[in-house]
Amino acid sequence: MLAEAIAYELDVQVGACTVDRFPDGEVAVQLLEPVRRKEVFLVQSTSPPVNDHLVELLALADACRRAAAARITAIVPYFGYARADKRHGRREPITARVAADLLEAVGIAHVVTVDLHTPQIEGFFHAAVDSLTAVPTLCRELRDRLPPGLAVVSPDVGRMRFATEFARCFGAPVVVLHKRRESGTETEVTHIVGDVSRRACLIVDDMISTGGTVAESVTALLEAGARPEIIVAATHGLLLPGARDKLDHPAVREVLVTDTVAIDDRNWPQLRIVSIAPLIAGALERFLADGSIGDLY
Ligand code: R5P
């Protein structure tokens, strides 16, 4: 559990609380120890089931506020609803903004998150936001095992900057795929910008949800002449049911994700999980010492 791993890094105990359900399904939480005048860090990714996790976080923050906590920081390593950060058509909500408003409404004064889908979500908050990145953590894990002749692949234009950071780390060229999203589960690669012929590929993304984006990317790269040596690295492994099947391609050597989202299915030889607990603990140590976290970005 990520909260325990962060607490271990900081040499503190995880505070006791219960998170349960009333018979009708409503969220029921209770703090089992005082937090009066305490600095409280609530660790909760708003990963699936997104609404349940969001309401649990809101309820716990409200409990802390009413119990007179000095300051409440929400550590939301994976910030759900981040893809709803703008209106794609008329009469649509901006649900990422709604989630930000809700967190602030219950007294959360500081948010720590990792690889936000888009950086402008920070602007949805009045509260301080520390947006960390897992890129150095993922690069350290990958460094010694990457094949030669590598290209770093951004599966869409929006991930260019992210991919560029990996490319800089490995001294590799960046290739960009142009993705058209047909629906929440279907995507199509329409163009490839860059040359992948006879190259091994590292596909990087902020999240793997249904696995559709990666699966389409793998097909497009192989069709464009890439070697069947593909590694996938993403910060958030949502890995919804069916994602494993989509990623189960003989060319996919490894899928590396972090533990921003708790993953049940570890019986998957190609899947590797690296912890971002040291990254978050480092940020909290600096925060508590009123120091800068600039070197963690
Ligand atoms: C899209 O903009 C994101 O960066 C991911 O590429 C996408 O959300 C992954 O979703 P899926 O695995 O369902 O294709």
Question: Layout of helices and strands, plus pairs?
Answer:
Elements: H1 2-10, E1 17-21, E2 27-31, E3 39-43, H2 50-66, E4 71-76, H3 95-105, E5 110-114, E6 128-132, H4 135-142, E7 150-154, H5 160-170, E8 174-181, E9 187-193, E10 200-208, H6 212-223, E11 230-237, H7 243-247, E12 252-258, E13 271-274, H8 277-288
Parallel strand pairs: 3-4, 4-5, 5-6, 7-8, 7-10, 10-11, 11-12, 12-13
Antiparallel strand pairs: 1-2, 8-9
Helix pairs in contact: 1-8
The structure holds ribose-5-phosphate.
Q: Can you describe what's shown?
A:
The chain is an alpha/beta fold and 297 residues long. The chain has helices spanning 2-10, 50-66, 95-105, 135-142, 160-170, 212-223, 243-247, 277-288; strands spanning 17-21, 27-31, 39-43, 71-76, 110-114, 128-132, 150-154, 174-181, 187-193, 200-208, 230-237, 252-258, 271-274. A seven-stranded mixed β-sheet has the order 9-8-7-10-11-12-13. Helix 2 (50-66) links the parallel strand 3 (39-43) and strand 4. Helix 1 (2-10) crosses helix 8 (277-288). It is globular. It starts with a helix and ends in a 9-residue tail after the last helix. The model has no long low-confidence stretch (mean pLDDT 95). Bound molecules: ribose-5-phosphate (R5P). Ribose-5-phosphate is lined by residues 155-156, 158-159, 187, 205-213.
Characteristic key phrases:
binds ribose-5-phosphate; globular; 297 residues; alpha/beta; 8 helices; 7-stranded mixed sheet; 27% strand
